[in-house]
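Lab meeting, action items carried over

1. Structure of the two-component assembly. Owner: GW. Status: complete.
Input record:
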Amino acid sequence: MVDMLSFNSTDAEYIEELTGYVAIPSVSRDATAETMRSAAEWLAAQLAFADGRVVATEGHPVVRADWLHAPGAPTVLVYGHYDVQPTGDLAEWKTPPFELTLDGDVIRGRGVTDDKGPVFIVLKVAQAFIEQEGALPLNIKFVFEGEEEIGSPNFPAFLREHADELSADLVISADGAMWRPSEPSLSIASKGLVTLDIEVTGADDDLHSGRFGGTVANPVHALSTILAGLHSADGRVAVDGFYDGIPSLSEERRAEIAAVPFDDDRYRAELGLDELFGEAGYSTLERLWERPTLEINGLKSGGKYTVIPHSATGHISCRLVPGQRPERVIQAITDHVLAQKVTGVRVAVRPDKAGVPAYTIPADHPAIRAATAALEDVYPGQDVLLAVIGGTLPATALFEEVLGAKTLFFSFSTADEKLHAPNEFLRISRLREGMRAWEQLWRLLADGPHRLAPVIKSRPER
Amino acid sequence: MVDMLSFNSTDAEYIEELTGYVAIPSVSRDATAETMRSAAEWLAAQLAFADGRVVATEGHPVVRADWLHAPGAPTVLVYGHYDVQPTGDLAEWKTPPFELTLDGDVIRGRGVTDDKGPVFIVLKVAQAFIEQEGALPLNIKFVFEGEEEIGSPNFPAFLREHADELSADLVISADGAMWRPSEPSLSIASKGLVTLDIEVTGADDDLHSGRFGGTVANPVHALSTILAGLHSADGRVAVDGFYDGIPSLSEERRAEIAAVPFDDDRYRAELGLDELFGEAGYSTLERLWERPTLEINGLKSGGKYTVIPHSATGHISCRLVPGQRPERVIQAITDHVLAQKVTGVRVAVRPDKAGVPAYTIPADHPAIRAATAALEDVYPGQDVLLAVIGGTLPATALFEEVLGAKTLFFSFSTADEKLHAPNEFLRISRLREGMRAWEQLWRLLADGPHRLAPVIKSRPER
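Predicted assembly:
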C-alpha cells in the first residue's frame, strides 16, 4: 500500500462520539418511532458528505447516502443497521446498557458491536477520505436499516422499490463478525433463520394451584413434554424432515475444517462450561458452521406464585444451512408439535414472518480475494481464515435476488463480544484495525490487481 | 336467633370504604415497607374499639387488637392477613388491580377476596356489636399478618413470642374460602405446601443462538426434560416417595365425596376447558380434596430473542395432604431431579423455606357444629357441605402447635373468585351474608347449646 489515511482522533475521542450513538436506545422490537428516528438521524448527519438522509418507509426508516463521483470506478453498496437487540434482564448488566462504558481494553453497551461500532468505523473511514483526499476511491452507496434485529420485515419491499437506485457491483456488509479475536477471518456463508412460538393454553385464567390443583391439566407440563421431544438424547433435532435438503458434509470440507486451529477445551472454558454438546457425529466446528440448529430461546409462563398458569410459551429459533427451505422447516416443526398427544390443553404453533434462507459467497470470489489482501495488510504475518457466520444476515439473500450482487461480510465485531446478550462489548483495538482495513479494501477494489470487475447483473424479472 | 344487628350502611358505602383498603398495594412479595405499614395502619384504625395497633416485628408488621370485656365467656382469636399476591401481567386485568371496580354483582381488585374483603366483614360485625350493644358477645383477640402470601416466614416466631397474649379457645380464620358459590360450606382441612425452584444453568452468559448454536447444551432443553419427567402420562407424580405416608382413601370417604353434588361438566365449562385432567384412579373431587399435587407455577428463561439462555428456571409448588411431610417431599423431588442425566449443564434444586404440612379439624368439632348452625341461619333450607380447602393456610398448623387451639375457617370468599390470578373479585352479596353469619357464629359460640367449651391447652414445651 502506498496511500495511508491519517486517523487523527484519539481513541478517547472516537469513543466519546460513539457514546452518543449507543445512548440512543434503538431497540427495534419495542422502541418508540421517535427513538428509532433519532438513531437514523444520527447516522444521516454523519453521512452529510454523501447527502445522508432518513427515508421514511414502512416500519422504522432507512438511512441512505450516495457518493458517486468516481466515474469509471466500481460501485459498492455499504450495508449495516442502526437498530439493536432488547437489553434482556437489566440486572445482568454490569453497567447500564445504553451508557457506553470503557472497561480496560473494551467498551461495553447495547449495540456497540452489533452493529453500531462496526458502522461507525465505516463512517470515519469515509470522512477521512473526503477530508484528506477530497474523494472516495470508488463510488459508494450507503443503506442502513432499522429492523435487522427483528428479521427485516420491511427491508425486502424497500430494496425492491429502490433496486435501480441501489444497484452496485458488490455489497459490503458492516454487519457480521469475525469469528474470534485471535486471527483475522472472512465469512463465506451465513446461516438462515426461522423463528416461531409454541403456545400451550389451558383455562381462561391462571388458577390458584391449591383451589384447582389436581383437576386440570397444567399447560407447562404439556409444553415441557413438547419441548423435551424436539431433540433426541444425542443432540439431533428429532423433527421428521428438519434436515431435508442438506447435502452431506464432504470429506474435503471436513478436512478444511479440521485444519482450522480450534481448541475445544479453551472454547469450553471461555464459556464457563464443563462440557460442550451438540449433534452426534460432528466436531464442534462442523456443528457450528455446517449444521442447522433448533434452539429454545426463551420460556414464558406464570411466575413464582402459586398458580396453574393459563398459558405457557416457548420461543424457538432455527439456524438453517444451505439446502434447507425456511417454509419447509416451519411446516416440519408444526407437524411434529401438533402430532404430540396432549390432554386437557390446546397447542398452537405460531411462526413469525420473514424466514431467511442460508447464504453463501464462493471462496474464490474477487471480493474475498481483495478482502483477504486488506486483512493481511492490517494483520501482517497472520493467515486469514475463511469461516462461516453462525448468525443470520437477512439482507444478503435479498441483495443477491434483487440487485444481483454478492455480499462481502466485512465487520470488525468478534463473535465472543456478547452479541444479543447482556454486557455486549467491542474491543477498542478493532476501531483502528477496522478503519485501516476498510481503507485498504476500498483502495484495492478501486484499482490495481484486485480491482473489482463490474458484475454482470443477473437481476431476475420483478 | 333472637338478637339481630342492623348493618346500617348501604352496599355502596361498604364498597367505598373497602375501595380505600384495596387501593393500598400491599403486595408482600415486593411492596415497600411504607406501603405495607400503610395497609396495617388502615386495619389498626378500624380496630380502634379494641385498642387496634401495628406491632413492628421481623418482616412486615402484625396488626393486633383485643376486646376482653366478657368475663366468663369463651375467647376466640380472629386471624386474617392484609397482604396480597402480585398482580401478574397487568395486561390481563380488565381494570387496574388496585382500583376496586364495581362490575354487576361483583367487585374486582387485587386482594378483595383474599383476604381484604373477608377481613372487612369481621371489622364491620365487631363495630356493629360495639355500636348497637356496647359489647361483643365473647372475648375476641385479633391478629392480622402481612406475609401470608409469601409463606408467613416471620409469623411463627411472632406467635411463639406472643403465645400467652394470644391464647384462645378457638382460632377463627377470615382467610380461606367457600369452595363454590351455590351452597354454603365449611372446610375441615386445608392442604400443605412446599415450593422450590429447579434451575438449570449453562454458559456464563446468554449466547447468540447463531454464533454459538450447535456447540453447547441449551439449559431450556434440559429443564424441559426434567419438568416433563415429573409426571407420568396418567397424571401421577412420577417422583419416588412423593406419595409416602398418605393413607389410602377409605370407601367411606369416597362415598361421602360421591354424595356431594358436583357437575364435572359444568366445572370444566366454567374454566373454559375442553376436558379435565388429573391423577388416574380418582374422581375430580377426590383429586381436589384428597390427593396431593405437584404443579409448575411458572417458567423463567431468556425471551423472544435469538439467544441460547444461560439459565432456565421452573417454579414448582406441591400441595400436600395429611400424612406427607414437607421436608420428605422436598427431598424426594430433589433426589429425583438430580438423578436425571443431563449433559453440558448444571442442575440445582432450591427449596424455599417455610414448608407447611396439611391441616385438619374433625367434622364433629364444636366449632364446626356452631358454624354449621350459623350458616344454616343465613342460608335457610340449604345443606352445609363439609369441604376441603385446596389452598394452604400456613398459620393453622402453627396455631395448633403453639396455642393448642384448632382453627375454624370462616371466610366469605369463594374459590372461583380468581384468587392469586388477574381479575380477582368478590361477590357483593357475600358482604351481608358474611356479616350476618359472623354475628350468629359469635352469638352461638358465646351462649346456648353451641357454647364453646374452654379447650384444654395441649401446648407443647417451648
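2. GW to write a short summary for the group page. Key points so far: The mean pLDDT of chain B is 93. Chain B touches chain A through 89 residues (CB under 8 Å).
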